[in-house]
Design goal:
Strand content of chain B: 15-25%
Number of strands of chain A: 10
Radius of gyration of chain B: 33 Å
Radius of gyration of chain A: 17 Å
CATH architecture of chain A: 3-Layer(aba) Sandwich
CATH topology of chain A: Rossmann fold
Largest interface: A-B, 39 and 32 residues
Order of helices and strands of chain A: EEEHEEHEHHHEHEEE
Distance between the termini of chain B: 29 Å
Helix content of chain A: 25-40%
Number of helices of chain B: 22
Structural class of chain B: alpha+beta
Structural class of chain A: alpha/beta
Number of domains of chain A: 1
Distance between the termini of chain A: 30 Å
Oligomer: heterodimer
Largest sheet of chain B: 9 strands, mixed
C-alpha cells in the first residue's frame, strides 16, 4: 500500500489568456500510493481539476515534475502520453462524455478494443450494476446510469489509477450515492488507486485520505480514521 | 457600429475559411453562368451586327456556267431583295516558305463593287488589275503576305503570278476551312479576291457566272425562293441552292453557338443547384452551432426579429461575396473564351456583351440561395425559448437496427460503428455530402469524356480510317487509269482511287444536300469506319447512310432514295437504303463503286486519289503536285492530324481546366464544410476519445473515415451521373455538321474518381489538424 503511483515535485501551472495570467497551481508536492482512494477537496478555482488533468496526462505543468511510478510524465512525448492514458488511466467526468452513437456495451468496448488486458465489457457493466441496460444508447439512460457506464468504461481496461472529476456533480444525491458505491467497490475489489475531485465536502468521508486545496496550493492533507460507506453519506 | 454588427463582422472573420468555401462554390456556379452567357451573347451580337452591316447573303447557289442575265432573273423571284453573280473556283497555290501546296478559294469582285457579302478591307487596297489579288486576313497573316508580296497560283490549269494588294475580311468567311478538311488551316487554305475581268479570263467565263447569292426580303419564304432558284439554274448545271444553314462558315459558327448555348443552359444550373444545396446545408449547420448565443441574445432582450435579421445578414454577406466573386470570375472566363474564339471566328471586332441581365440574375440567385439556406436554420433556432437554447442540446437519440446485426457479423470496431451510426443517424447530412461529391465526379467525367471522344474521332479518322499521306482532288473525273499515273509521281508507294460527288438526297418531301462516295472493293488507305472504329462492309447494292443523315431524311432501310447529282454528269438515280451506320462525323452517303457506275451505266471513274508517299521524298511530291494542272487541290493528312490535335486540344483545354477547377472546388467546398461542421459538433466526443487513450490518428479516423466512406460511395454514383450528363451533352450538342461520338474510357472514370478522392482527402485532412488543437481538458469541461 505504500508504493507511490504518482509523485509531483513543485508543479506550477500558469494560464495565459491575452494579457491575463492565472496561476492555477503554485508549487504542489503530492504523492499517491497504490490502492488509495483520495478525495481532492476544494472550492471552485482552487486548482484541483488542473492537478487532476496534469496527473492524467491531459495537461502539462508550466514548471515542476510529475512521475507516474518511474516515468517522468513531464518529459515524455505527446505520443507517450497517449499511450500512458490508454494503458494506465481511467477517467470519469462530471458530464459522462459517452459517445452518443454507441450503446452502453459499445461505449465500454470502445476502450476494451484498444486496451492491453481488459475485462469483458459485460463484466465491467456488471460491476457498476448495469447488466440489464447494456444495449441502451446514452439517450435512453438516466444521468446516474450514464455516469455508471462512464465508470465501467474507465475500469474496463483495469487501469492503475482512476481519476474522477466531480463524478457526482451533475447528479442528485440518491443517484450520486449509487455512483460513489460503484467507485468504492471498484477501489476495494480491484485495488485501483482512485483520485476523486469534488467541492462537495460530504464526500470526503468515504476516502482513505483527504487533500484540501486552495489558491493552487495544498492546504491540508489528512487521513480518515474511519471511513463511511457511501449510503451513509448525505448531502 | 452597433455591437451586433460588430459581432457580425467578427463572426465572418472567425468563419472566414468556411464562408469562403461556401462563397467559392456559389461563385463557381455563377461564374459558369455569367461566363458562358457572356460569350454567347458576345458572339451572337457580333455575328448579327456583322452580317447586317456587311450584307451577308441569305441564299447561295453554284452552277457550271450561266449567262450574267440570270442574275436579273433571280432578282425577280418573289421574296428576293438583291441578287449578285460572281465567278468562284478552287486553285492550287505555291506560297514561298511553304513546301506543301496551299489551296485557294477564288471569288471574283463584281465590277462597281460588291452589293452582298461585302469584303472589309483591313490592310492595303482592293485589287484593280489582272495579276492583283486580295487575300483573307488570316491567310495573309499566317503566310506573311503583306501588300506587295507575290505568289504563284494554278488558275484553271494555268500558272500565274499574283501580287497581293490587301487583306480582307468577309461575313461569308468568318470561319474558313478547306473542303474536306477537319480543321481550319490558315497557312494552307486561303480566300482570294480577284477583279472580275481577271477571273473571267482565268476561267474563260466572259459574260458568264457560276455562283449567285441572294438577299431576301423580310417576309420572304426561303424554301420557296430556293426552289425557284433551283428551277432557274437547272438548265445551267445548278448544284442546288441553299440557305445560310448550309453555308459553311455560318453553319460552323452557328453550330459552335448552338453547342455553347447547350453548355450555357445545362452546366450552370447544375452548379448553381449544387451550390444552393451546399450553402443551404452549411449555413444551416453553422447557425445551429450558434444556438447558445442566440439563446443568450434573447435572454438579454433582443427581439426574435433582430436576431433573425442578424444571422440572415451573415448569410447575405456570404451570398454577396459569392455573387461578386462569381460575376468577376465569369467576366474573366468570358473574356478568356472570347479570346480563344478570335483565332477561329474572324470578325472585324468583337462587340463585347457583358450579359448584364444574366449578371444581375446570377447575383440575385446567389443571394437568394444564401438567404434560403440561412432562413431555415435561423427559424429553428430563434423559436427556441432562451433557457432551452442556452443549454446544450440533448444527446441525439440513436436506435438499434440492421446495422447492429452487421456488427455481429463483421466484428467492426467501435470507431467504425461510430462512423456508420453517424451516417445513418443523419442521412440528410450525409446525403448533402454525397450529393456534392457525386456532382463533382459527374462533372469531371462529363468534362474528361470529351478527350475520349476526340481520341476516338482522331483514331477513327486518322489511324484507321485514313492512312494515306495525301488525298489529291482532281479537277475533273478521270478514268481509273489516272490512279496508275499517280503512282508515277515522285515517292508514291501506293495509290487508291475514289469517286465522290455532291448530291441532293431526296425522300418524299425531305431533301438534304450531301455527297456520295463510291468505294472500291479492297480499299486499304481510306476506309469507311463506324463510330466503334470497325470497318463497314458495304453491301453489294444500295446506299449506306450515317445515322444523322438518315434521321434528317427520315430514311429507313429499304426506302428508295432519289439521288440528284449536283456536278457532271448530273444524273438522277434511285437507290435503296441498304444500311444505316453509327457515324457521328459522317454526313455522306456511301456505296460500292460497281453499284454506282452500273446504275450510271458508265465506265468506272475517279475524281480523288489517295496516296501513300515516302516521307523522305515529300518535297519532290509537293513540287510535282504544284505543277500538275489536273490536280485542283489536296488534303495533307499528317498536317490535318497535327492541326486537329493541336486546335481541338488547345481549344478544349481552356474549358476543361475551368471545369476541372470548378469540379474540384465543389468537392473541396462540400467536404471542407462537412468536416468543419463535424468537428464543431463533435469536438467534445472526439476529445473524449483522446482522453480515453486513442491516438490522434485513431480519433482522426472517425472524422476522415466518415467523409471518405461517403466519398467512396459517391464516386460510383458520380460515374453514373457523369455518364448521364455526358450522354445528355452529346445529344444536345449534336449539330447538323458534327456529332461527338459517345464514349467514356476507364481512364476518364479513374481520373475523375482519383481527382475527387484526392480533393476530398486533402480537405478532410486539412480539417483533421484542428483536432490536434483541441485542448483536451477544456474540451471536456466546456459543454456547449
Amino acid at each position: 500500500m505504500d508504493r507511490p503511483v504518482f509523485r509531483t515535485e513543485g508543479i506550477t501551472r500558469l494560464y495565459r489568456t491575452g494579457a491575463v495570467e492565472v496561476q492555477a497551481l503554485r508549487g504542489v508536492d503530492l504523492s499517491l500510493t497504490e490502492g488509495e482512494l483520495v478525495v481532492l477537496l476544494g472550492a471552485s478555482g482552487s486548482g484541483k481539476s488542473t492537478l487532476l488533468n496534469i496527473l492524467g496526462g491531459l495537461d502539462q505543468p508550466t514548471a515542476g515534475r510529475v512521475f507516474f511510478r518511474d516515468t517522468e510524465l513531464t518529459r515524455v512525448s505527446d505520443r507517450a502520453l497517449t499511450a500512458f492514458r490508454r494503458d494506465h488511466v481511467g477517467f470519469v467526468f462530471q458530464f459522462y462524455n459517452l459517445v452518443p452513437s454507441l450503446t452502453a456495451r459499445e461505449n465500454v468496448a470502445l476502450v476494451t478494443e484498444i486496451a492491453r488486458h481488459p475485462m469483458r465489457p459485460e463484466e465491467a457493466l456488471e460491476r457498476v450494476g448495469l447488466s440489464a441496460r447494456m444495449d441502451h444508447f446514452p439517450a435512453e439512460l438516466s444521468g446516474g446510469e450514464q455516469q455508471r457506464v462512464a465508470i465501467a468504461r474507465a475500469i474496463a481496461k483495469r487501469p492503475d489509477v482512476l481519476l474522477c472529476d466531480e463524478p457526482t456533480g451533475a447528479l442528485d444525491s440518491a443517484t450520486g450515492v449509487q455512483v460513489l458505491e460503484a467507485l468504492t467497490a471498484v477501489n476495494a475489489d480491484l485495488g485501483t488507486a482512485t483520485v476523486m475531485v469534488t467541492h462537495n465536502a460530504a464526500i470526503r468521508q468515504i476516502a482513505h485520505r483527504v487533500v484540501r486545496m486552495g489558491d493552487g496550493q495544498i492546504k491540508a492533507d489528512e487521513r480518515n480514521a474511519t471511513r463511511l460507506a457511501p449510503h451513509e453519506v448525505t448531502w | 457600429m452597433r455591437a451586433l454588427n460588430r459581432k457580425l463582422m467578427r463572426d465572418l472573420r472567425r468563419l472566414w475559411a468556411q464562408a469562403f468555401a461556401i462563397a467559392a462554390v456559389l461563385a463557381c456556379g455563377i461564374m459558369m453562368l455569367v461566363g458562358m452567357q457572356m460569350t454567347q451573347a458576345t458572339l451572337s451580337g457580333t455575328q448579327a451586327a456583322y452580317y447586317d452591316r456587311y450584307r451577308f447573303a441569305d441564299v447561295f447557289a453554284a452552277m457550271t456556267r450561266a449567262p450574267r442575265s440570270v442574275v436579273a432573273e433571280a432578282a425577280r423571284i418573289e421574296g428576293v431583295a438583291l441578287a449578285e453573280g460572281r465567278i468562284g473556283f478552287q486553285a492550287v497555290l505555291d506560297i514561298e516558305g511553304l513546301t506543301q501546296p496551299a489551296t485557294g478559294r477564288v471569288v471574283s469582285l463584281p465590277e462597281g463593287g460588291a452589293q452582298l457579302n461585302l469584303p472589309l478591307l483591313r490592310r492595303g487596297r482592293m485589287p484593280e488589275r489582272t495579276g492583283e489579288v486580295a487575300v483573307n486576313e488570316p491567310f495573309g497573316e499566317a503566310n506573311g503576305l503583306l501588300p506587295g508580296s507575290r505568289f504563284r497560283a494554278l488558275l484553271n490549269g494555268r500558272l500565274q503570278e499574283l501580287t497581293v494588294t490587301g487583306w480582307v475580311l468577309s461575313p461569308e468567311f468568318v470561319y474558313t476551312i478547306a473542303p474536306g478538311a477537319m480543321m481550319p488551316d490558315d497557312r494552307r487554305y486561303g480566300v482570294l479576291w480577284l477583279p472580275e475581268p481577271a477571273a473571267e479570263a482565268a476561267m474563260d467565263m466572259g459574260g458568264a457566272i457560276n455562283e449567285i447569292a441572294l438577299r431576301l426580303t423580310r417576309e420572304a419564304d426561303e424554301r420557296a425562293v430556293i426552289e425557284a432558284l433551283d428551277d432557274l439554274l437547272d438548265p445551267y448545271g445548278g448544284t442546288g441552292a441553299y440557305g445560310r444553314d448550309r453555308q459553311q462558315s455560318h453553319a460552323f459558327l452557328d453550330g459552335e453557338m448552338q453547342q455553347l448555348g447547350v453548355l450555357a443552359r445545362f452546366l450552370p444550373p447544375v452548379f448553381l443547384l449544387v451550390a444552393m444545396f451546399l450553402v443551404n446545408m452549411v449555413l444551416g449547420r453553422l447557425i445551429k452551432l450558434e444556438r447558445t448565443q442566440i439563446g443568450l441574445l434573447k435572454a438579454i432582450g433582443y427581439s426574435t426579429q433582430t436576431i433573425a435579421a442578424h444571422y440572415l445578414k451573415l448569410a447575405m454577406l456570404i451570398g454577396l461575396i459569392g455573387a461578386g466573386l462569381g460575376v468577376a470570375l465569369g467576366q474573366w472566363m468570358g473574356s478568356g473564351m472570347i479570346a480563344s474564339y478570335r483565332d477561329y471566328f474572324r470578325f472585324p471586332v468583337y462587340l463585347r456583351d457583358p450579359a448584364t441581365g444574366v449578371m444581375v440574375l446570377a447575383a440575385a440567385l446567389g443571394m437568394a440561395t444564401a438567404l434560403i439556406g440561412g432562413a431555415g436554420a435561423v427559424r429553428a433556432s430563434v423559436l427556441l425559448p432562451p433557457a432551452e437554447a442556452m443549454s446544450p442540446p440533448a444527446p441525439p437519440a440513436f436506435s438499434r437496427g440492421w446495422l447492429d446485426w452487421a456488427v455481429g457479423a463483421f466484428h467492426l470496431r467501435q470507431t467504425t460503428m461510430m462512423i456508420l451510426r453517424s451516417i445513418l443517424r443523419w442521412p440528410g447530412r450525409a446525403a448533402i455530402t454525397l450529393f456534392g461529391v457525386t456532382a463533382s465526379v459527374a462533372l469531371l467525367v462529363a468534362s474528361y469524356f470529351m478527350f475520349d471522344a476526340v481520341d476516338l474521332m482522331a483514331d477513327t479518322l486518322f489511324t484507321r480510317g485514313n492512312r494515306q499521306t495525301v488525298t489529291l482532288v482532281l479537277a475533273s473525273s478521270q478514268p481509273e487509269s489516272a490512279v496508275q499515273d499517280a503512282l508515277s509521281l515522285p515517292g508514291v508507294r501506293q495509290a487508291e482511287g475514289a469517286y465522290s460527288l455532291p448530291v441532293r438526297l431526296v425522300l418524299g418531301h425531305r431533301s438534304r444536300l450531301s455527297a456520295v462516295t463510291a468505294h472500291v472493293e479492297g480499299e486499304t488507305l481510306s476506309r469507311l469506319l463506324d463510330d466503334n472504329g470497325d470497318a463497314v462492309a458495304l453491301p453489294s447494292e444500295g446506299l449506306v447512310l450515317p445515322e444523322r443523315l438518315a434521321e434528317a431524311l427520315g430514311a429507313r432501310i429499304g426506302d428508295l432514295l432519289r439521288i440528284e447529282m449536283l456536278a457532271p454528269p448530273r444524273e438522277v438515280l434511285e437507290l435503296p437504303v441498304a444500311a444505316v451506320i453509327a457515324q457521328g462525323m459522317g454526313q455522306e452517303a456511301h456505296l460500292r463503286a460497281e453499284a454506282l457506275f452500273a446504275a450510271m451505266r458508265i465506265v468506272p471513274q475517279v475524281n480523288r486519289i489517295h496516296l501513300l508517299a515516302d516521307p523522305a521524298r515529300r518535297a519532290d511530291l509537293d513540287a510535282a503536285i504544284k505543277e500538275t494542272p489536273a490536280i485542283a487541290g489536296l488534303t495533307d493528312w499528317s498536317e490535318t492530324r497535327a492541326q486537329f490535335d493541336a486546335t481541338l486540344r488547345e481549344n478544349m483545354s481552356v474549358m476543361l481546366t475551368i471545369q476541372t477547377l470548378v469540379g474540384l472546388m465543389t468537392a473541396l467546398g462540400v467536404v471542407y464544410n462537412a468536416a468543419r461542421i463535424q468537428v464543431s459538433e463533435r469536438s467534445h466526443e472526439l476529445a473524449s476519445l483522446r482522453v480515453l487513450g486513442f491516438s490522434r490518428w485513431e480519433v482522426g479516423y472517425v472524422l476522415v473515415g466518415e467523409i471518405m466512406l461517403l466519398t467512396l460511395i459517391a464516386i460510383p454514383m458520380g460515374w453514373l451521373a457523369g455518364y448521364g450528363l455526358a450522354a445528355g451533352l452529346v445529344q444536345a450538342m449534336a449539330t447538323d455538321l458534327v456529332a461527338i461520338p459517345f464514349t467514356i474510357t476507364r481512364r476518364t472514370y479513374a481520373l475523375a474518381a482519383l481527382a475527387v478522392f484526392a480533393a476530398s482527402l486533402g480537405a478532410v485532412l486539412l480539417v483533421r489538424r484542428r483536432l490536434d488543437r483541441v485542448e483536451l481538458a477544456t474540451a471536456l469541461k466546456a459543454r456547449e
